[in-house]
Amino acid sequence: MSSTTTRTLRRTALGLGALLVLSAVVAAVLFRLDGGRWFIVETPSMGQSLPVGSLVLTTPTELGAVADGDVITFRNPESGVVYTHRVARVTDAGLRTRGDINAAVDPWVVGADDLVGGVSFSAPGLGWAIQGLPLFFVGLAVVWLLTIRVAVPRRYSWRVVGVSLSLAVTTFVLKPWVGLERMTQAAPTDGSRGVLLDVVSTGLLPIEAFEPDGPASVPLVDGQVGTLHLTTGADTGAYDVLTRLDLSFGWWVALVLFCLLPLLWTLAVGLVPHEPEPAFEPAAAA
Fold first, then answer.
1. Which keywords has UniProt assigned to this entry (predicted)?
2. Predicted local confidence at residue 24, as pLDDT
3. Phi and psi of 38, rounded to 5°?
4. CA gyration radius for the chain?
5. What is the pLDDT of residue 54?
6. CA distance 250 to 161
7. Which of 111, 136, 251, 271 could form a disulfide with 247 if both were Cys (CB 3.0 to 4.6 A apart)?
């Protein structure tokens, strides 16, 4: 592949990327001007309906247009904190809400002044990407500046390594892949020793939550709630729970290939012959 063709493909890819980013920005501005709002879910209270890291878009709605079962975004009448919960009951005083995995209805009543809007669109996982974009782009800018004077083809190889490192740092900071939160803990109803612990997955990948030195385990996907009967900490009252990935063989293969992409790319770039880039020569004075 000639250097001219490579530069053309690179410029085309950059142009398409810039066009996509510009289109997304324009769409976001128009949506905001029309009264829409967007939020990123930070707590697991909505379970699998809206897992942690979901992007939620809301549109303005009147209190009288809300019905039982609708998912709405509102401000806590007491603290002003924004929540996205499901309407459990419409009353004359306002709306009673509840998170899908919460045991009880929220203690407040949502009035017209507290209502932000109804959820019109949600995308699990997209909020993680939006949160990570600023840090990722900073990493890309640093990589580009550090490699601008590196000769081809090493420049491409170093940039692939830099992009991979930027992605790794971003995911290390956000930790979107695997997460687990403890919920409620209760004594077994049959009188057996130990505790029943409810846990919820807050990461994008399927996991298995398990008792380190006991038989209890439960598979979970993003936003799913599971119950563990823990017994090994009964004597001390300290119950430990660990997690491990719970992927099928096909997903393991896909994950390994994804991790190897930077290596495969740098090897391909190093093996393909590249024409030297033309040296810059200043124009002769007239």
1. Membrane, Transmembrane, Transmembrane helix
2. 79
3. -130, 145
4. 26
5. 97
6. 26
7. 251
Phi, psi of 155 (to 5 degrees): -60, -45
Q: What is the pLDDT of residue 286?
A: 42
Q: Are 136 and 167 in contact (CB under 8 A)?
A: yes
Q: Structural domain of residue 190, as residue ranges?
A: 180-245
Residue 42 lies in a domain: yes
The parts of the chain modelled with pLDDT lower than 70 are 1-7, 9-10, 234-237, 268-286
> Is residue 163, in this structure, part of any structural domain at all?
no
Domain assignment present for 194: yes
Question: Is 222 inside a domain boundary?
Answer: yes
The string over 87-113, giving b where at least 16 C-beta atoms fall within 10 Å of a residue's C-beta and e elsewhere, is bbebeeebbbbbbbbbeeebebebeee
Cis peptide before 51 (omega within 30 of 0): no
SS3 72: strand
